[in-house]
UniProtKB/TrEMBL annotation:
It comes from the Eukaryota. InterPro entries: Mutator_transp_dom. This is Mutator-like transposase domain-containing protein. Residues 4-120 form the Mutator-like transposase domain. It holds the Pfam family Mutator.
């Protein structure tokens, strides 16, 4: 008998299975699926970029977010792959990965000052740094809350 469930952070199935005791005394262990987590993250970003989110955010910032949702997903996967291959203890990898996630948000919106070398080759011609605008209107807080 199996006691594991692969799901996502928004799943309510674990609670239902545990309360109905379908597996008797066997405890249900929930395993977070990376694909589910990334899908939920991207869906939250998509909701933020939607005019129906009821946030008063300039249209250009919403469009910039919407056009870069796939880049967010790719960036997380790239950072995870890089950190997994490092030959340091897991306890050191985790804060590095967390820092990568914070930095890639800035990177996607044109701020490259804190990027790691493995991830970024520097500024891109004709790309505008919109981080100050995101900070000024508070939209960056909404984006970071999706993480």
């Amino acid at each position: 008998m199996h006691g594991s469930l692969v799901g996502d952070a928004d799943s309510s199935i674990t609670k239902q299975l545990s309360s109905h005791k379908l597996y008797g005394a066997t405890p249900i262990q929930k395993i977070e699926c990376v694909n589910h987590l990334l899908r939920n993250f991207c869906n939250k970003l998509k909701d933020l970029s939607s005019p129906s989110s009821h946030l008063i955010i300039p249209l250009n910032l919403r469009k910039k977010l919407e056009s870069n949702i796939l880049r967010f997903r790719i960036s997380i996967k790239k950072a995870a792959a890089f950190r997994i291959q490092m030959t340091v203890p897991l306890a050191e990898k985790i804060p590095l990965f967390q820092n990568d996630i914070k930095n890639f948000v800035a990177h996607i919106f044109g701020e490259y000052s804190n990027c790691e070398e493995y991830f970024c080759k520097g500024t891109i011609d004709q790309e505008e740094n919109i981080m100050p605008e995101l900070i000024r209107c508070g939209f960056i807080d909404d984006i970071m809350a999706c993480l």
